[in-house]
Amino acid sequence: MRNYEKRNATLIKLTLWALTILVFLPFLWLLKEAGPNYLVTLKYLSLDQNGIVLVWLKNSAFFTLTALAISVLSSITAGFVLAILEIPFRRFMLFITLITMLIPITAMAMPLYVLIDKIHLNDNLWGLIIASSYYPFGTFLSYLYFVSALPGDLVGMGRIDGLGDWGLFWHLGIPLSKALWSIVIFFSFLSLWNSYQLPKVLLNDPIHSTLPMGLELLYGNGTAIVGVLMLVPVILLYLLSQRSIERGIFSGAVKG
User: Fold this and answer.
1) Which terminus has fewer CB within 10 Å in the chain: N or C?
2) CATH of the structural domain 37-250, one choice from 1.10.3720.10, 1.20.1300.10, 3.40.50.720, 1.10.540.10
3) Predicted pLDDT at 49
4) DSSP H helices in the chain
5) Is 45 exposed, middle or buried (0-12, 13-18, 19+ CB in 10 A)?
6) Which region holds residue 233: left if phi is over 0, alpha if psi is between -120 and 50, else beta?
7) What's the CA gap between 48 and 54, in Å, rounded?
């Protein structure tokens, strides 16, 4: 029996290593294509065409951070409200959130374009921010987390202590959801930073483009360098929040 378990453990390790190598192959290809003088090439790209790459980087940073703040705050707050507070049509709103989460962004692109055009923010980063700030996955994830982390007895004790709706969120919801914040921030950042379809539809002027759109505009000249540049913030964010993400993902598995 022990030999059988050892063989299974070895097979699992080999499978995980094989999958890890497979996932890293595109990243290794980017490093190879970037070449050993990637810093020199990046400097050249940053000065080429009046520093258009730096403009794209600034646009991506502004768009991602602004939309990230709005999407994280709104989705976690909405998840708390749906999970804890007694509000009218709560089940219906949860159903709509789930349906919206399942709709692909390609199907939402044109309706969002029409709505943004109606408020005259087409070809504008603020229009892109408004269209990208809704995050139904974060709302549904927050709902599931708060249902598990805040049982009815704990909420009832908070009510007895005189906490209102805002007090429950501030004194119970936020302190007990640090891992949730890390998960929502990471996945929301990943989605926004790599966003391509919505910027492609809503932005026309190259000066307003983000880095993912800029990869297409470069036509192979320095795309590997920009690709590595796009990977660096994602890797850094994951390394900074790795423990919180793992704790949040597995918290439900160890809950009694």
Assistant:
1) C
2) 1.10.3720.10
3) 59
4) 2-34, 38-47, 52-84, 90-102, 105-118, 125-132, 136-149, 152-160, 165-168, 178-193, 197-202, 211-218, 223-250
5) buried
6) alpha
7) 10
Cα distance between residue 137 and residue 79, in whole Å: 10
User: Which residue type occupies 60?
Assistant: S
For residue 66, give the amino acid letter.
Answer: T
The pTM of the whole model exceeds 0.85: no
Residues contacting residue 68 through CB under 8 Å, at least 6 positions apart:
185, 188, 189, 192
Distance, CA of 81 to chain centre: 21
Q: Give the whole-angstrom CA distance, residue 115 versus residue 131.
A: 9
91-94: long-range pairs with CB below 8 Å, 24+: 94/140, 94/143
Q: How far, in Å, CA of 45 to CA of 57, rounded? A: 12
User: Residues 171-204: pLDDT tens digits?
Assistant: 888 888 888 888 899 999 999 998 988 998 898 8
Distance CA 61, CA 19 (A): 31
Tokens matching residue 183: 């998960």
DSSP letter (8 states) at residue 115:
H
How many whole angstroms separate alpha carbon 176 and alpha carbon 161?
18
CB burial string 146-174: b at 16+ within 10 A, e below: beebbeeeebeebeeeebeeeebbeebbe
Amino acid identity, residue 116? I
- Distance from C-alpha of 240 to C-alpha of 248, rounded to nearest angstrom: 14
